[in-house]
Design goal:
Strand order of the largest sheet: 5-4-3-6-7-9-8
Bound molecules: S-adenosylmethionine
CATH class: Alpha Beta
CATH architecture: 3-Layer(aba) Sandwich
CATH topology: Rossmann fold
Distance between the termini: 58 Å
Shape: globular
CATH superfamily: Vaccinia Virus protein VP39
Order of helices and strands: HHEEHEHEHEEHEHEE
Structural class: alpha/beta
């Protein structure tokens, strides 16, 4: 066992990936704490505490079949589960692509492996880079911001000029308990950059739209 693990300094992402290797994707009740907006988180399900809630994954896939995006950008691939659900929506649509970035090379390798074994690999472009450096070409129809919570505001600001005014911006982990993403979304709204709806899920999900260019 490595010293890092013995002294419990192992990154949470790596620990959860080891757990997934041991048990596979095991469905369990959501255990994030109750909030005023979501008092019964246990009514939701999750595979692990990094991957979005199963109901949010279902929402992502349905949103893709509903708005039929040509280009989806996801920040924070982790093990690739949300990327795969987004890509399943694209496959059902028969068009589009999802570009997803993961800056941790160990995590990236695991995501690449999972995605390579999936039936939707052809719809996904994986990048081993930071959301704050990644460059994408063209207009973004769906932005799913799910990287490190403190950088979400910066990342949305960074991609905003490329987001279509008819597109959708999602910011995960926006519950009142996790705070930072919720506050970032409300700040961006106050500045007149986006309009937000705060969905009351266990970890919170912002559904937003860019204001500029909206008719
Ligand atoms: C909450 S997890 C993503 C979960 C994934 N979207 C899902 O639902 O299946 C966040 C991931 O973002 C990665 N990450 C954190 N900051 C990042 C950044 N600035 N750019 C790219 N990846 C980042 C972390 O290494 C971690 O794997």
């Amino acid at each position: 066992m490595s010293l890092r693990r013995i002294f419990k300094k192992e990154k949470q992402e790596h620990r959860i990936l080891r757990q997934i290797e041991r048990t596979g994707d095991a469905l369990q009740p959501e255990y994030h704490r109750a909030t005023p907006e979501c008092p019964h988180p246990e009514r939701w399900s999750m595979f692990d505490s990094m991957t979005a809630e199963v109901e949010v994954l279902e929402f992502l896939r349905t949103l893709v079949t509903t708005i039929k995006p040509e280009l989806i950008v996801e920040t924070g691939t982790f093990s690739g589960v949300s990327t795969i659900w987004l890509a399943e929506g694209l496959k059902a649509n028969g068009r589009g692509k999802v570009i997803s970035c993961e800056f941790d090379p160990v995590v990236f390798a695991k995501a690449k492996e999972r995605i390579g074994q999936s039936a939707v690999a052809g719809w996904i472009e994986l990048r081993n880079e930071s959301s704050l450096e990644m460059k994408v070409e063209g207009k973004i129809d769906l932005l799913f911001s799910d990287s490190d919570m403190p950088v979400r505001e910066q990342e949305v600001r960074r991609f905003l000029p490329q987001v279509s005014p008819y597109g959708v911006i999602l910011m995960h982990d926006a519950s009142s308990h996790l705070k930072v993403v919720r506050e970032a979304a409300l700040k961006l709204e106050k500045e007149g950059l986006i309009s937000v709806v705060l969905l009351p899920t266990p970890r919170g999900l912002v559904v937003a739209q860019k204001r500029e260019g909206r008719k």
